[in-house]
Amino acid sequence: MTADVIIVGGGPAGAACARTLRQLGVECLVLDKAVFPRPKLCAGWITPRVVRLIEMDDYPHSLVTFKRFHLRFRGRKFPLLTRQYAIRRTEFDHWLLKRADVPVKTHTVKRIERRRDYWLIDEQFTCRFIVGAGGTHCPVYYTIFRHINPRARNSQIAAMEDEFRYDYSDPNCYLWFWENRLPGYSWYVPKGNGVLNVGVGGVISRIKARGSDIAQHWNHLTRKLDELELVRGHEFTRRGHNYFLRQDTQRAWTDTACIVGDAAGLATRDLGEGIGPAVQSGILAARAIAAGKTASYSTIPRYSLPRMILAGWGLYV
Length: 317
Known about the structure:
Order of helices and strands: EHEEHEEHEEEEHEEEEHHEEHH
CATH class of the domain at 2-40 and 89-151 and 244-301: Alpha Beta
CATH topology of the domain at 2-40 and 89-151 and 244-301: FAD/NAD(P)-binding domain
CATH architecture of the domain at 2-40 and 89-151 and 244-301: 3-Layer(bba) Sandwich
Distance between the termini: 41 Å
């Protein structure tokens, strides 16, 4: 099977890239190992900028609005006026990919080869240009970009979370920073239709340097949720994953390949926000491919908190 562009990964970065390519008249194909809708754990908040970029006026699923975040720094309380939204990734990702309206094949990419002027994937798919949108463990990254864009270990984040139906009584979003000496933060994010997401994330190297691990911080969070009566009597089913924060220098492009989203390590440095950078990089990549150019991700914000504060003032940058 042949396409001008093959996108490996159908998450927010891949779906945003695919939709933009279609709008620009470029033929593309998405390959993903999962069948959508897929289970996807994520705190799942998105910014007003993302809502505008992907035109969510017709979004058919739950979209919870937070006008205030309740922050805790080393036990001190700081309310933050803002405007953010919470989605469920299993719904959001499926909607984005379906709306892209491009061919999608369920396929686990194992081997990527360069043949003269095209890419060959598992002896089955060929393309002129390949986009890596498969997250942290994207095969496009490991095949093409691993050596030219090495990831800094001190920017690797470990996260552990659970998303479940729960009759919660507190509809607010809580973030705890540096709780129990965690170099990161933990969260409590209510979502629509009685769904709750809780989790913890931090810099792996710094957690290990303190003689700890992410599971210990998870246990601390669940005890705290019980003490605050935010979650009581629930049997958690935790799952872990890891990703990389934005680095100072990046090389995310060659003349016939690029990486976007978590494959490129674009999560913001302060809160590890990944959905916004994923969507923005996917759109930027598609526009550059259609124009026969390379894209720069320099316009994608490196930090989340400044924009969250501006959103509280009604400035949606």
